[in-house]
Specification:
It is a single chain. This protein is an alpha/beta fold. Helices cover 37% and strands 19% of the residues. The protein contains 11 helices and 14 strands. Strands 4-1-9-10-11-12-13-14 form an 8-stranded mixed β-sheet. A 4-stranded mixed β-sheet has the order 3-2-7-8. Helix 4 links the parallel strand 9 and strand 10. The chain is globular.
Amino acid sequence: MRIAVTGSIATDHLMTFPGRFADQLVADQLHTVSLSFLVDNLDVRRGGVAANICFGMGQLGTAPILVGAAGSDFDEYRAWLDRHGVDTASVRISETLHTARFVCTTDKDHNQIGSFYTGAMSEARLIELKTVADRVGGLDLVLIGADDPEAMLRHTEECRSREIPFAADFSQQIARMNGDEIRTLLDGATYLFSNEYEKGLIESKTGWSDEEILGRVGHRVTTLGSRGVRIERVGDEAIEVGCPEEDAKVDPTGVGDAFRAGFLSGLSWGVSLERAAQIGCMLATLVIETLGTQEYTLRRAHFMDRFTKAYGFEAAAEVKEHLA
């Protein structure tokens, strides 16, 4: 399968302040705050939902196609993704804007002050999926992830008009979307991804019941945190898959993206939905054990040993033949 993943491409600039923000605030001067914090360290990490998902798929050897917008500062990030098996030829490079960036400072009490610069992400609406499809010889599935809202709507409508199967995955953008937008983005999706909280928010904003939404999509994939994932389809019994045992819980950032990377890779290999969900849960476990969203290394023998322990020899035998 040729799978394109649309969505954000960004870098995270994370800093740590050794004191407390509260100690620097003067109650009767909050209307005119002017502060500068001397921080101890700076971590620059690669991120963005589309890039995270594609990195995971590249680690599994499924050659994903990254579709999104970045700035002229994308060269180093592009080289990193290229080295890890991601097709970046369909990334639009802005002539005037930098790659999207999240800048955040955390104090000793874990309070945070952050800013998100959308930058080149706003140009994702200018990308035509037909151009991508023509370049690679057609698309079998497009995941429409969190991105510039107009880009998400355009990609969805283009998938419908060109009869390209698509997966709806609103994630961070669901908070700013209204009911009409969400209804437009999910109606007719082959897969609808969300976590439990987002599931309730989708139902609340659209005014559609769980059953109505399930009737409008091919499959509803709901991640359940430490309890794994549930996959539902009209007329079929729900599939529930648990998570492998974690060695450590280091950083939950990017865990959902890793699940999607594993699940989509399973679809690409043609394994069952249950197996695809197991692959997703295994990859998500590797990410939660690592600081950063793209800092883990997938070693085939290690992956298969842990997969076998979690899901058994029969499941492992089906997956092993596909894992590069």
